[in-house]
Amino acid sequence: MPRVFSGIQPTGSLHLGNLLGAVRNWVHEQDQADSFYCVVDLHALTVPAAPGAVGSQTLELATTLLACGLDPARCTLFVQSHVPQHTSLGWILQCTTGFGELRRMTQFKEKSLGQDSVSAGLFTYPALQAADILLYDTDSVPVGEDQRQHIELTRDVAERFNSRYGETFVIPQAAVPTAGARVMDLQEPDRKMSKSSSTDAGIVGLDDPPESVVKKFKRAVTDSLGEVRYDPDAQPGVSNLLSILGAATNRAPESVAAEYTMYGPLKSDAGEAVVELLRPIQSQLAEFRSDPAAVAVALRTGADKAESVAAEVLERAERHIGLLPRR
Ligand code: AQP
């Protein structure tokens, strides 16, 4: 069976972009691959947060992932900081990653723009992300389009390490979905929908009530061209609605476009389709939230299983570098 790994940061509530770009594929992959999914809480420390927030957000994110359909009996779901091998390999890979490589990362440029103070961790986190992936001998990494550059970096770092120290890491591939790979903000359709967006109106949260989802789609920013075409450059707002409706109903955005001439019906149908997509998730969410102890047990079991794989790969990397063994 191929090995799959992917991660998600507990930096806020999950949104439609996370679901369509990543989590929906994770659920699908559980039955196709030996799948490892990680709540990457250490990555969340790269940006400022209130003391204590990360723990509760980690539990809430894991609860939401279970509600989306991740099943601990069919995949390994765990928390990054519960498996100490991530930081050990992360340091080793920081030492095999170039400063110039990290400086080229678009996400660092976007997240550091206009900030008074930027942590060193925000700069180096793609090396920790490479460790997350490489620790599991991963073949495939299901991610949204925005993560493609980081997966390319992971591949480069792994190839460099292998050629310097001998065959150590499996070289992973990014698996980016054909539909929903880049869901844009409903109010600012030239920016991706993001947990840390400044306004709530452009983000569809997975636990938004149906009336709020419908309202957000009705108010979605479009344009004044008055035609429905799938052309993300010329019509980013309309194209985003077509992509979302297409991804929610398993159709190509171009063929969805052929069914509409006016923006109003497109907005209502996109809103309704998303309400239907979220309905089963929201009912599961209520159940999982009522039993946090069961979520904690699932995470503990996941961490034990993840650590047994990660320990072997870290030991292989340390041996190939030539670090002195403890015993
Ligand atoms: N708008 C999006 N469209 C499609 N996929 C997306 N992903 C994120 N936003 C979109 C995918 O979701 C997975 C988890 O992402 P993450 O939370 O670890 O980090 P991120 O990409 O930085 O997501 P956010 O929402 O923008 O979070 P913040 O605001 O904290 O940075 C990834 O596979 C990502 O591709």
Please specify the SSE layout and strand pairing.
Layout: E1 3-8, H1 16-29, E2 34-39, H2 41-44, H3 53-68, E3 76-79, H4 85-94, H5 99-103, H6 106-112, H7 120-134, E4 140-142, H8 148-165, E5 173-175, H9 210-218, H10 236-248, H11 253-257, H12 263-289, H13 292-321
Bound molecules: adenosine-5'-tetraphosphate.
Adenosine-5'-tetraphosphate binds at residues 8-9, 11, 17-18, 20-22, 143-144, 146-147, 181-183, 192-196.
Gyration radius, rounded = 20 Å
Unreliable stretches: none
State the CATH superfamily name of the largest domain: HUPs
Distinct small-molecule ligands in the complex: adenosine-5'-tetraphosphate
- As laid out across the biggest beta sheet, the strand order is 1-2-3
Number of domains: 2
How many strands, which pairing sense, and closed or not: the largest β-sheet? 3 strands, parallel
Q: Oligomeric form of this entry?
A: single chain
Q: Tell me the number of helical segments per DSSP (H or I, 4 or more residues long).
A: 13
Q: CATH class of the largest domain, please? A: Alpha Beta
Query: Which structural class best describes the helix and strand composition?
Result: mainly alpha
CATH architecture of the largest domain: 3-Layer(aba) Sandwich
Strand content: 5-15%
What would you call the shape?
globular
